[in-house]
Amino acid sequence: MDEELQLNVPLLRRRVPNLTTAARTAGLRAATVSNLCTGKIPVGRAEVRTLVALASLAGCSLDELIIRGSGIRMIETGIKALDLLAPVVRGGTVGFVARPNMGQLVLLAEFMLRMKKRGFATVFWDPGSDAPGINHVQAQSEFTHATKEEVYNRIVSLRDEKDVLLGLDRSMVLSGELLSLRESLKEVGARPITIALVDIKCEVVDDQGAYGPLDTLWRFDTDLISRNIYPAIDPVASTSTVLEGAHLDAVHLATQQRARKLLRRYRELRSLVTAQGFDKISEIDLQLYKRGERLESFLAQPFFVSEPYTKKLGEWLSLYETLDDVKRILDGATDEIEPSELFFRGRLEVIR
Question: In this structure, which long-range contacts are made by residues 48-56, counting pairs with CB atoms below 8 Å and at least 24 apart in sequence?
């Protein structure tokens, strides 16, 4: 029953911007509130007085504070583009679709590192490949195993302690071993297992059903790669089932839809501007183009695993921070800022 309850974190953070300070003032432990917000403490195990105090701080009822029975919950990765446009579903399957040298294994390694910070156990089902970037994935995996039996035993040993992020190659799908593993785990009642599927040989870039049913699709984009914008996730083609059926907080859903619409139009205008220049577009389209350019730059983000190469410290933004900053860009609050000032950075408030 605990798994069916979740805290309405976007609502809480929106109504109580300085949540840590407010929690202390209300006599709550900041660590407890933080763990509730990140999911480290299930809502069902929280003290009633804690939940009542949080509802009082937010000026809402317990029914508004606690979301019941949706069965679908996103996992924050701290990566702006992913959390905004194509969120990870807890216990779901994420598919990476990329051409060679587009950074899919670097993103998988970063995903694993960030989930370790969230308290997940990270397991890599190693296909025995020496593909460039596989070493990064191995380094960020707490456990690396070569066989289905080893992976099964590891997950079973962890099932009462942690959620698991399992990374593996498409070859395990084709062989039927992933399906067999899923069936075996159903019998032992393991905690949610979030699966990240990559295609190390990059054979499925044009195949929509390459992995079977997915909860989240991250499709890598050649144009973003050519301009060194990372993570190079196509903002229009990448998506998530958590966006369907109103499983997102209303503010998140509205912001995501506005951002996707702007980026779609920006991409159309970019082709026109490249071919004919700015003189061929209207003032309204020019404003949309500039805002789209700023949003695209803002969604570029330094990774922790890439620090030795980029010389930039990795950045983690909470979903609340991402939504707040994206809304400012969409509403024109950054119209006087050059896109280059927004590129490959964290929050807007630390830019100036």
Answer: 53/23, 53/26, 53/27, 53/28, 54/7, 54/12, 54/23, 54/28, 56/26
CATH class of 250-350: mainly alpha
Q: For the chain, where do the domains classified as CATH 1.10.1140.10 start and end?
A: 250-350
Does the pLDDT of residue 297 top 50, yes or no? Answer: yes
List C-alpha distances in Å: 186 to 122, 150, 159: 19, 17, 12
Exposed/middle/buried for residue 263 (C-beta within 10 Å: 0-12, 13-18, 19+) = buried
- Which pLDDT tens digit goes with each residue over 47-70? 888 998 998 998 888 877 876 544
pLDDT at 225 over 50: yes
Between 144 and 207, whose confidence is greater? Answer: 144
Q: CA 231 to CA 209: how far, in whole Å?
A: 23
Which pLDDT value is given to residue 280? 85
- Location of each CATH 1.10.260 domain in the chain: 2-68
Which residues of the chain are in CATH 3.40.1010 domains?
Answer: 93-214
- Is domain 2-68 classified as CATH 1.10.260? yes
Helical packing angle, 283-299 and 250-276, nearest 10°: 120
Amino acid identity, residue 130? D
Surface-to-core class of residue 292, CB atoms within 10 Å of its CB (0-12 exposed, 13-18 middle, 19+ buried) = buried
What are the structure tokens assigned to 247, written together? 């499983």
What is the CATH code for 93-214? 3.40.1010
This prediction's pTM: 0.79
| Bridge partners for 145 per DSSP | 125
